[in-house]
Amino acid sequence: MCTKNKIKKGIFLLNIVVILSNCAPENDLTIPDLVVAEQEIDGTILPIDAVLGMLGQALEKEGENAKVIFEDTDTYVLGYVISDDKAGNFFKELILQDKNINPSAGMRILVNKSPLFTSYEFGRKIVIKLNGLSLGIQNGVPTLGVSEGNDIGEIPSFSIDNSIIRLPEVATITPLELDFEDFTDDFLHLYIRVSDIQFNKNIISEPSTFTFAAEPNDGFDGERILESCKTGRTTVLSTSTFSDFKGLSLPPQQGSFEGILTKNFLGDMYNLVLNDPTGLIFDNESRCDPVVLQCDASHTATTVVFEEDFTALKIKDLETKGWINSNTTRGKLTYKIGDFAENQYALITGFRSKEPIYEVWLITPEIELTAYTNTLLDFDLQAGYDNGNILEVFVTENYTDDIATTSWIKLDAAIPKGPLNSFGAFIAAGPIGLSCLDGSVRIGFRYIGGDPRATTRYHIDTISIKGTPN
After folding, report:
1. What distances in angstroms separate CA 168 from CA 101, 162, 190, 201, 360, one per listed residue?
2. pLDDT digits 0-9 by tens, 360-412
3. Between β-strands 93-97 and 457-469, what pairing exists: parallel, antiparallel or unpaired?
4. Does the N terminus or the C terminus of the chain have fewer Cβ atoms within 10 A?
């Protein structure tokens, strides 16, 4: 039950004291701090989670295009500003959360004004008059603004002062500690800290280190893959191509992120967004790149456990046979079947994909090793048009039907360095010992890069696992 509350409406009292003298230098002119005084306002103050609950009920009844339209109401919603557009990474939007410590609900507000940090700075407590506004799902996240058909639009500039009321308090915001695996919609639009993370090594390796958002195929945002040193899970850091720091190189160390959890433009992936680059505290020089599986490979084996040479296959045939071909960054780039001189192979290249970041997996069907010892993995690799080593090979004993939540172990595969403007020769990437594994396994070929920065073409052929029957 919401109760009537009286709050004091902030009004601006700007006292400018100018002291002039015949010899006074310019820096003797002083402008005292802006004072936010208080004025009473009657209304019902709703917490953010209550307003989001109204939207949840509407979505349940009416479907994904449902809205909550506020009309003839004296209700307000209260929160703390956690976005900051001073560095240009936010534009015409405010992000609010309900509390400055241990927040539990957040909200996005569209506002036809820029910049916003001069009036609604980080930590500023504000109330928003809901009358005349609408709340709906925009880009996959709850968004407050004005109704425009099925969309939510910006609060018009002429009504901002009437709709958004500054309060005197500017609070210290304490980030909520989370890990990648904690991400759910319950934490959307909260100011969070994620520790023990790093950028994937394929996008910070010299001389092909990526910038935050200044690659040729970065559209409105640059998306860069972050990985957890605790679990190996990945997520995406999204940076506006209009930000002041878009041209900075990604840091190669590991460390922590402080910023906002939201979703990408399509609303189907969680993204992390910085207010400015100081939110990345990457000060640990020791990276946590995957430990390589150490199994004995000194023996021989002749009994075929699994093999695939891609002969007379189309990519759909692989999927029918239980292979998984997935772009986890939601792009269109996937593995294909290539052929040359009557030889067929699995092919991957990001060249001309126009995808600024991609993580693409080709994963074998389950391969049962229980009845064998001395198992060895072999396959052939060819690299061409090489602008970075961006292929890695992994194995798992417990595939979860979700690439991101599966525990992968890196394999010590010999990834060839190809020529810059042509193809190298096929080379053997093994043998790689699998004898310390048991049960059902899957082999995963992970390709991480971005067009045009890292687009090396790889051909994978003649995959086989051999062993000795028990």
Report:
1. 18, 17, 22, 45, 49
2. 999 999 999 999 999 999 999 999 999 888 999 999 999 999 998 899 999 99
3. unpaired
4. N
Give yes or no for residue 178 having a pLDDT over 80: yes
- SS3 state of residue 87: coil
Whether residue 423 is predicted with pLDDT greater than 90 in this model: the reply is yes
Token pair of 433 as six digits? 């010992």
> In which element (H, E) is residue 161 found?
helix 160-163
CA angle 116, 118, 124 (to 5 degrees): 85
Count of CB atoms within 10 A of residue 173's CB?
Answer: 19
* Cβ atoms of 225 and 234 closer than 8 Å: yes
Token code pair at residue 162: 């009437």
Name residue, tokens 């999927």: 319
C-alpha 398/C-alpha 420 separation (Å) is 38
For residue 103, the tally of other CB atoms under 10 A from its CB is 24
pLDDT in tens, 321-345: 999 999 999 899 999 999 998 899 9
Q: Specify which residues 6 forms β-bridges with.
A: 42
Write the CB contacts of 27 (distance below 8 Å, at least 6 apart in sequence): none
Question: Token pair 């699995």 is at which residue?
Answer: 346
Q: Specify the DSSP class assigned to residue 175.
A: P
DSSP H/E element including 151: strand 151-153
Q: Band of the pLDDT at 4, cuts 50, 70, 90?
A: very low
Asked if 123 and 174 count as a contact pair (C-beta separation under 8 A), the reply is no
23 residue type, one letter:
C
Token reading at 250: 């990604």
- The closest of 214, 447, 254, 216 to 346, measured between CA atoms, is 447
Closest CA to 325 of 224, 427, 452, 447: 447
Nearest to 300 by CA among 378, 367, 371: 378
**Rounded Cα–Cα distance for residues 221 and 243 (Å):** 9
Distance of CA 208 to the CA centre of its chain: 20
Per the structure block, which two tokens stand in for 119? Answer: 């009036």
Nearest-angstrom CA–CA distance, 132 and 255: 44
Helices (H), 300-347: 315-320
- Is the distance from CB of 254 to CB of 286 less than 8 angstroms? yes
- Measured between alpha carbons, how far is 427 from 461 in angstroms, rounded to an integer? 10
What is the distance between the alpha carbons of residues 234 and 213, in angstroms, rounded to a whole number? 18
For 89-126, the pLDDT digits (tens) are 999 999 999 999 999 999 999 999 999 999 999 999 99
Tokens linked to 248 = 């900075």
pLDDT digits (tens, 9 = 90+) for 195-231: 999 999 889 987 779 999 999 889 889 999 999 998 8
Beta bridge partners of 271: 236, 262
